[in-house]
Design a protein that fits this description.
Bound molecules: flavin-adenine dinucleotide
Largest sheet: 8 strands, mixed
CATH superfamily of the largest domain: FAD/NAD(P)-binding domain
Shape: globular
Radius of gyration: 25 Å
Number of strands: 28
């Protein structure tokens, strides 16, 4: 995503005045890296793992919207079932957590109130004022809720917790449900906190004149503490109230932490990164049951924040975690999550490919970068060694990577062999893997001046250790980066089920749940994909389920055979999970003997546990596929897009220091934009949207 974003920004109209050509070199047959997906049998979407976009991905949505705008499919490709960005993604407000109570798992369903905003509005370059603005929003959320305690009549009859984080006062708020349980007169502490906070929120009327000073007011924080203390006792016996209280108390601890650590007084958020977020929030008064509870576990699950995939070692730099949590909960537009209506390869990378091609950008598929070489004076990249994995069939000028599934341009799950020369058997090769042993058709050396002037390295940090050996030997910053910026292997599997979720005991199709048990702590219900796939009528799924988690695969670079070994482990893990752990999520999919294997679509004659072989699973162990983490104490080793140390080399990807140092699509996009800005000689955050710390 980082590389394609850089290409997108660099190839804006008029680009030929600056550059002779722009070429994307891509290993294998498809684009997308960790976000790549392709289509298998029956047009099945096969992903690296669950991918959702968050409503705060202002820059990623903007690129997506610009891309669809330019493609203009209603005119250029009216047969395609996804014509606009609004067809491609949809807000998903229902989220869930799995909570452990006295040894039993319990569902915690919440809905983050949707709003009418749309992420990525073109031209909306106004950057939010800063963390202080978010702090006020968080405070407002608490206060609105506190005030609503007096109004028991507005309680959601389902008793569900409704979270809202928009700047506007929501119809129902997170603490409405507190009233349900307390049935008490509003405690004095709540009124006191409300009064104080209102003063701050009223800004100009604040006794401090400055709302930030107000947040730091010990009187207010003390009043919020007293709310917690009183409610803590009241809510102990009621799961809904207890969860609501946890949410509030974590928010209060976060505010207190930012005040105590001087962030509102100008201390950079990144300074907090040396400490793990859990220990930081605990140190600032987060109650143990909230710190150890589902909310924060889900944040760690979502970001695969476990050292070496060991779930007993959660670690996430506090500064990066605060930024992500705050943006996620308080900056979203439309919905907190946005889900894709087909694979990420189909709705993001294929359109980007088409639009970039249309702009005149060249693509060289089957080109694996092996090494970057320095100039004799070690100030620039002089040459790039490339292994060409396949040649084009005679008469072809370029590889066409897309096929249509029900009219939608998609990447297939293997190269289109008919377009390649001497490629018999290539479709079974792991061309995207460092351990691939398929012999190269050709060795190429790209030379500065002849083949390139400027290079954007969009190969992830896990792989940089392999292709950037000369740079690592030359500059300690490179050595520090590859040694310290950690990555983790992940695993995922997908199943296609004959019966709809309500029939299987789950009444809320479409939910994304996190915080569940190892090894697949995250589950997403994906019924919106059924119509995007191409199943025969007599074998059509009524439900699709994605599962995902970290994979404890160690740090050694994967070699040939490693992937196969881990694939087998994931398969075994998936089988055990379906037999032993699925009951809690989809009770009807399990009987006395374990998982009902006959539920699987596409089994192709296989029965019993063997039917699992017909579904999809993946072990993401390749250095390039490993998820980039934000472990405490590592942020300082990231290089910025313009900090390669070499005149003609720029960096793009979620592993750089983009200001949002968390492994996600928005970080990759930010980094790609910053790389393009650097190439063009513009300021780092020129035309970058959304809040970023300075
Ligand atoms: C299982 C999983 C689930 C995730 N879920 C989410 C989610 O829900 N939401 C979210 O926002 N983010 C999610 N992420 C993170 C997201 O996928 C990444 O942040 C994003 O893809 C990073 O983009 P990138 O451009 O930095 O790197 P990559 O996506 O890894 O792209 C790197 C590119 O470099 C290419 N490459 C590597 N080596 C070579 C070589 N030697 N020669 C040529 N090309 C090479 C790769 O093929 C790829 O095209 C998830 C990640 C994983 C692993």
């Amino acid at each position: 995503m980082g590389g394609l974003t850089a290409a997108w920004r660099l190839s804006e109209p008029g680009w030929r005045d600056r550059f002779e050509r722009i070429t994307v070199y891509q290993r294998g047959w498809r684009l997308g890296g960790k976000g790549a997906s392709s289509r298998g049998r029956h047009g099945r979407i096969q992903e690296h793992g669950l991918h959702v976009w968050l409503g705060f991905y202002e820059n990623a949505f903007r690129v997506l919207r610009e891309c669809y705008e330019e493609l203009d499919r209603p005119r250029s490709d009216p047969r395609a079932p996804i014509l606009t960005w609004r067809d491609a993604v949809r807000p998903a407000s229902a989220v869930g957590l799995e909570d452990r109570e006295r040894g039993d798992w319990r569902h915690w369903l919440a809905r983050f109130a949707p709003n009418d905003l749309e992420p990525g509005d073109p031209g909306d370059d106004e950057r939010p004022a800063g963390l202080a603005e978010f702090a006020l929003r968080a405070l407002r959320l608490i206060i609105d809720g506190v005030e609503s305690l007096a109004d028991v009549g507005r309680i959601d009859p389902t008793g569900r917790v409704v979270l809202s984080t928009s700047a506007e006062t929501p119809a129902r708020t997170v603490v409405d449900s507190l009233a349900l349980g307390t049935q008490l007169a509003v405690p004095a502490a709540l009124l006191e906190a409300t009064r104080l906070a209102r003063l701050e929120l009223d800004g100009g009327h604040s006794q401090f004149g400055d709302p930030i000073a107000g947040i730091a007011d010990p009187e207010l924080l003390g009043a919020l503490d007293r709310i917690q203390d009183r409610l803590g006792g009241i809510v102990a016996e009621d799961p809904d109230l207890r969860r609501t209280w946890q949410y509030m108390s974590l928010t209060v601890a976060l505010l207190r932490g930012l005040v105590a650590d001087g962030v509102f007084a100008g201390v950079p958020l990144a300074r907090l990164d040396d400490e793990d977020y859990l220990s930081w929030i605990r140190r600032h008064g987060g109650p143990p049951e909230a710190v150890d509870g589902a909310l924060l576990r889900a944040l760690y699950d979502m970001t695969f924040a476990y050292v070496d995939g060991d779930t007993s070692r959660p670690r996430f730099g506090a500064g990066s975690a605060v930024l992500l949590a705050v943006k996620m909960a308080l900056e979203y537009k439309g919905g907190i999550f946005w889900k894709m209506c087909a694979g990420m390869g189909d709705v993001v990378f294929a359109p980007l490919y088409q639009a970039l091609r249309h702009r005149g950008v060249d693509f060289e598929f089957f080109h694996r970068v092996d090494a970057l070489h320095l100039s004799p004076d070690r100030t620039a990249i002089d040459a790039i060694s490339v292994g060409r994995q396949a040649r084009l069939a005679p008469g072809l000028e370029r590889y066409e990577p897309l096929v249509r599934v029900r009219g939608l341009p998609c990447f297939p799950d293997a190269p289109v062999v008919a377009q390649l020369a001497d490629a018999h058997g290539i479709q079974d090769q792991p061309l995207e893997s460092h351990g691939c042993t398929w012999p190269d058709a050709e060795r190429r050396t790209l030379r500065r001046g002849a083949d390139f002037d400027v290079a954007v390295l969009a190969i992830p940090v896990g792989m940089a250790g392999i292709v950037c050996g000369e740079l690592i030997d030359d500059r300690p910053e490179w050595r520090d980066m590859v040694d310290n910026v950690a990555t983790v292997a992940t695993q995922a599997f997908q199943i296609w089920l004959r019966e709809p979720e309500p029939a299987l005991g789950w009444p809320h199709p479409g939910v994304t749940m996190s915080g569940y048990t190892d090894p697949f702590d995250t589950w997403a219900s994906m019924p919106q994909l059924i119509d995007a796939e191409d199943w025969p009528d007599d074998d059509r799924p009524a439900a699709i389920a994605y599962f995902c988690g970290v994979l404890p695969a160690g740090r050694a670079v994967a070699v040939a055979g490693d992937r196969d070994r881990h694939q087998e482990l994931v398969r075994e893990g998936a089988k055990a999970f379906l037999d032993q752990n699925l009951r809690h999520l989809l009770p009807g999919a399990v009987n006395g003997g374990g998982f009902r294997w006959e539920l699987l679509c596409g089994a192709n004659g296989l029965s019993g546990p063997a039917a699992l072989d017909s579904q999809f699973w993946t072990a993401n162990v390749d250095p390039s596929d490993r998820y980039v983490q934000s472990l405490p104490g590592t942020g300082r080793y990231r290089l910025r897009s313009d900090e390669s140390g070499y005149d003609n080399l720029f960096l793009a990807g979620d592993w750089t220091d983009s200001g949002l140092n968390a492994g996600c699509i928005e970080a990759a996009v930010l980094s790609g934009l910053q790389a393009a800005n650097a190439v063009l000689g513009r300021a780092r955050n020129h035309r970058v949207a959304g809040y970023l710390p300075d």
